[in-house]
Amino acid sequence: VKLDSAAWLNAGYEWDTIGPVKTGVYAQLDSSFTSSNTVVYLSFNGKLIVGAMYSQGNGSFYIDNIPVGTPVYFVVISIKNGTYYKAFVSATIGTSHLEQITPTSTTLSVIQSQLALLP
Fold it and tell me: Cys-Cys link to 74, which of 57, 84, 89, 113 (CB 3.0-4.6 A)?
């Protein structure tokens, strides 16, 4: 899955070291969603910044050091057997956050439209 024109900055955002408590964040998908067919990002509301989540196998994706209380969208984009899948899930990060996500089949144009609407 390639996103080369999303207009996001995927960079290490410098969180205030004396600010909020940081935590690990997990996204759990069906095990058929793997690092070879799926990308999972955290889109930070109000910032043009995303954090790439890394596959841990069995449909599990992870990112560390996210401030508790941060409003985000989990952005899941996948292509399996020529079919696009997506999920855009709004959440506020809690301690050791685990988000269960079920992507649904879609079209590329719907994915592009939803990406443009992210806060």
Answer: 89
Residue 78 CB coordination number (10 Å): 23
State whether residue 92 is helix, strand or coil: strand
pTM: 0.85
| Amino acid at site 32 | S
Q: Helices (H), strands (E): how many in the chain?
A: 1, 8
Cα 25 to Cα 5, 30, 74, 81, distances in angstroms: 26, 17, 10, 28
106 in Cβ contact with 84 (< 8 Å): yes
Q: How far is CA 51 from CA 32, 80, 81, in A?
A: 22, 23, 26
Q: Which tens digit of pLDDT belongs to each residue from 57-88? A: 999 999 998 999 999 999 999 999 999 999 99
